[in-house]
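2 proteins. here.
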Amino acid sequence: MMNRDILTVIQENMPTFSKGQKRIANYILESYDKAAFMTANRLGKTVNVSESTVVRFASELGYDGYPSMQKSLQKMIRNRLTSVQRIEVSYDRIGDQDLVTNVLQSDIEKIRLTLEEVDRSSFENAVDAIGSARRIYIIGVRSAGSIATFLHFYFNLIFDNVVMVAANTASEMFENLVRVGEGDVVIGVSFPRYSSRTVQAMSFARDQGATTISITDSEASPLAPISTYTLKARSDMASFVDSLVAPLSLVNALLVAVSRKRSEELARTFQRLETIWEEYGVYEKVQD
């Protein structure tokens, strides 16, 4: 049952619910995008039932508690929400609280959860694969493009075999990947709402025998099943804006881990770069 759509389960069980449970059920069916982010207490107050009735409702559906049901709802809607719904949900969640505090605290929480949940084995294997890759391809479009660009900027300083996959059109993307194959590593970055182009590119790379590494938010991501290694970082929505603080933090860790394995070459590269930067006045000199 837990693998089925929670809304279908609620509809099927509707005749067995008490009057209070039907109120909860109807609210979830009509406003699942809001219900998914409410505490049991808040949901109860919204539909005029007690918190314990909400908790019993979750048990009635076969969940081991309200948080488990809430997680199921959040998982279901993660890729369904439109930008308009995102704005409504985020305003509803923040309410009258101080906006700056709420958003920054939320980002802190995402980093904390990412730290707890990151798979160290996948991380280490990804670092080794990147270090020994014939070529490294990086794919990220839309808001994930900022993470991909950041990754490409620093990998370009460490390696001389990095390809930023241009993905303005499907044909352009596949043209960039035409030589991908065994020995190559393809890194795909995507968060809800997941980019179909990134999924297609990663699927193609896997079929050509490349090692695929995804930087995404969960096992429910369409990138997870087509990735050799999945690096998960919590993402969330602050209004229509994707929160990419935790993914960027994970990418920082990846960059540091990879650079440590190439420390001697990197030192030589930076010595050369410092000379070039100085000669061409790349950076402003700040007076003490």
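next one coming up
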Amino acid sequence: MSRSAGVLLSVTSLPGKYGIGCFSKSAYDFVDWLADAGQTYWQILPLGPTSYGESGDSPYQSYSAFAGNPYLISLEALIEEGVLTQEECDAADFGSDEQRVDFDRLHEERLRLLHLAYERSDVSHNPAFLRFVEENNWWLADYSLFMAVKSFFGGVPYQQWPQDIRMHWGFALDYYRRELYYDVEFQQYMQFKFFEQWNALHAYANSRNIRIIGDMPIYVSPDSADVWAHTELFQMDGDGRPQAIAGCPPDSFSATGQIWKNPLYRWEAHRRTGYSWWTSRIWQSFRLYDVVRIDHFRGFDEYYSIPNGSDTALSGHWEKGPGMDLFWQVERSLGHKDVIAEDLGYMTEGVRRLVRDSGFPNMKVLQFAFDVNDTGAANDYLPHNYHENCVVYTGTHDNETIAGWFAGLTEDEKRLVRDYLCNDSTPDGEMYRVLVSAAMMSCAATCIIPIQDYLGLDNSCRMNQPSTVGENWRWRLRPGSLTPEVAQWARTVTMRYGRMNWANK
């Protein structure tokens, strides 16, 4: 198994104009930076349309498991296309901080501009658009109508819609498709532009010998086209409300556990269909990405079920998931696929067995390796305990930055880290370099470093803090921070530990 390396960076965190990182020149520049740094992978966060409001625009709470996020459409490309002007885009108010996404302003201004672009695009006579709608109708029909109806009812969750359309009755579908024809077409247009621009960026990355690692959340949002159109596949009551919701028991992030609010699957219903919805979902993911990281992989062995309405996750319990039955069916349908199993969290022998049986590489997080209350010998996250078939990270999008994590350790904990790494001399402020090197030198076949950790950034640049809402998913790179010097350091450490992408000499 060849050794390789990559960088974790959400598309939304790219620098650039107009409020959020997107498929603009900054994305192409980042691909070039990765190639210069000798990397093989660009790992991103989920690309689905994010739920505005209560969910805090989390990419793990999406309106669809199949659609793309319209926020990521490049306005610069639409200016070049002639359907927007630079003056119109420059006049829009996306907030005053270029290093933070202002989702309130983005929701208002970005969608307004995209609608203006749609009005100026003669999509009804565009063969490429018509072909896209026809080829993707199997998911696009429900999604575009769902979003149009949601807008019509002021953005409220679908559980608050009138009964006929809430229950997905056929005559109501026909009525709203007719009455909201242009609103539906606008949603289709945004998906057309998203996939057109993403496919171009993905192709460019591959042409530079960079592979994309995408992220597939195990669960979908309760307020999503998937649940609305396929209620029978989820643990929902007769009014379309979850009977039980997903989460996890108490862990290092929360003493009372985490409540994610996602509806749980009716696995027996999926089994009766031969897991057709899951097979379609994974097939769609591999249209977007070269490798897919499946979030919360342990949920396929056992999933944590919390009664809906619970204040904490303490009332939850474990239930049995589909196990290898799902993945055998997917492999029979799609063949072998490159998957990373995110198996972090509460571990059991059943989870370990599922990961082994799947053959998928699992994840190791260096920050989890050091605990003053642990003897160390049994710690799966200490580098000397790794096996080759895994992917090591200094941290994930849910962790502190590696510099912020080390700065927050007690002196005893810092001593534990230094003793393990045989390092007494490096100043605290430079230890992020030592920790990146420790991940790189491990036997793990793949090493992914968040861009914050290459830059030595503190916790003000953290992407997400689990169990909190309001300030997450907003961080963006400062323009000009990805210098040739940083690329050279990344290239040097990548080459030093045998992870160089030699296709990018």
